[in-house]
Design a protein that fits this description.
The chain has helices at residues 6-12, 14-27, 34-47, 58-68, 86-93, 138-148, 200-209, 231-240, 244-262, 289-298, 328-336, 348-361; strands at residues 51-55, 76-79, 97-100, 123-127, 151-155, 163-164, 167-168, 175-179, 193-197, 214-216, 219-220, 275-276, 282-285, 337-340. By secondary structure, it is an alpha/beta fold. It folds into 2 domains: 6-242, 3-Layer(aba) Sandwich (Aspartate Aminotransferase, domain 2); 243-361, Aspartate Aminotransferase, domain 1. A hairpin with a 2-residue loop joins β6 and β7.
Length: 363
């Protein structure tokens, strides 16, 4: 059994993917080929924004937005400590300070109730994460951002396709970023990402930044980097694109079946009535995690921990001076979360195998 079955996905769409790759290889238009612009247009329409700018990864997209906003040493960006390192990494790379706010105990997304207390005169932006494929409470977050005149950057690297109160992930902040890492809900054949925004001036700066700050050939107006989305990756995603909404529906069916069989036996991911999660992970919580994970591994069932240590406990951020227990909800979650196999091609028989093994070890 595979934790995420990318091979099954490839075999399902093999003819279209192979043809798309061959088209690029035969054209030899590997950089900035027409497939990139076509994908940008398709995804902007889907998300419901005016502009989509392809990037070489979700991390590079986050970094580019902060660069375009002029984030610099001395600035502060508020974010969550319970996420992948990239979220805070891009803040620190620009010399700015990541300011952590603890997470909601149910969704494990940034807790908007604690947000205002973290704002200082140096705060420039808020960067929530849509953890596990479910959006943060963006109405509450945007209310605080608007009140204090702050920018908001949606880290939607796990949530492309998710819906928050009728709006798609990517459209919820001043700008939104997603990742096309292969294991994401909509993945490519390597690394890739995209930035979404309704701000035309920001979109233009992002296009310049991804080309080494180049405004015309060998004319560099600002500092940038090589952040382009490869034509091959765009072509692969275009081949997979017609199936994406069906895959979202399949993820719902997988999640619903897990819920039906595990209800009352283990702490399940919260399902909010005004949202649609894309279940980048299906993450349960248990105080017996080590024993449960060992038992599942012995049964041939792969699992993962997203994430075993919150960012304030990472050595790279030790200089921020946080105590290990500084953000207690995030710290507790890091001891309990366990992600089960989750992908659109997971069969009921495979899920039964996961659940039967899990029930055998749960108290």
């Amino acid at each position: 059994m595979r934790f995420i079955d990318l091979q099954a996905q490839y075999l399902a769409y093999r003819e279209a993917i192979d043809a798309a790759v061959q088209e690029v290889m035969q054209s030899a238009c590997f950089i900035n080929g027409p497939q990139v612009a076509k994908l940008e247009a398709e995804l902007a329409r889907f998300v419901g924004v005016d502009h989509a700018v392809g990037y070489s990864s979700g991390t590079d997209g986050l970094l580019a937005v902060l660069m375009a906003w002029g984030i610099a040493p001395g600035d502060e960006i508020i974010t969550t400590p319970f996420t992948f390192i990239a979220t805070a990494e891009v803040i620190a790379l620009l010399g700015a300070k990541p300011v952590f706010v603890d997470v909601d105990p149910e969704s494990l997304n940034l807790d908007p109730v604690q947000l205002a207390a973290a704002i200082t005169a140096r705060t420039r932006a808020i960067m929530p994460v849509n953890l596990y494929g479910q959006c943060a409470d963006w109405d509450a977050i945007q209310a605080v951002a608007s009140q204090h005149g702050l920018l908001s950057l949606e880290d939607g690297c796990q949530s492309f396709g998710a819906v928050y109160r009728g709006r798609r992930s990517g459209s919820l902040g001043t700008a939104g970023v997603t990742s096309f890492f292969p294991a994401k809900p909509f993945g490519c054949g390597g690394d890739g990402g995209m930035v979404f925004t309704n701000d035309g001036a920001l979109a233009e700066r992002l296009r310049v930044i991804r080309e080494h700050g180049q405004v015309a050939r060998y004319q560099h107006a600002v500092l940038g980097f090589n952040g382009r989305l490869d034509t091959l990756q765009a072509a692969i995603m275009l081949a997979k694109w017609p199936h994406f909404e069906a895959e979202i529906a399949a993820r719902q069916r997988v999640a619903d079946y897990y819920r039906s069989r595990l209800a009352g036996r283990v702490r399940l991911p919260v399902s909010l009535p005004d949202q649609l999660s894309v279940y980048a992970q299906f993450t349960i919580r248990t105080t017996q995690r080590e024993a449960v994970q060992h038992h599942l591994t012995a049964a041939g069932i792969p699992t993962a921990i997203h994430y075993p240590a919150p960012l304030h406990q990472q050595p790279v951020f030790a200089h921020l001076g946080h105590r290990p227990e500084a953000f207690p909800v995030a710290a507790q979650a890091a001891q309990e979360v366990l992600s089960l196999p989750m992908h659109p091609f997971l069969t009921t028989d495979e899920q039964d195998r996961v659940v039967d093994a899990l029930l055998a070890i749960l108290p």
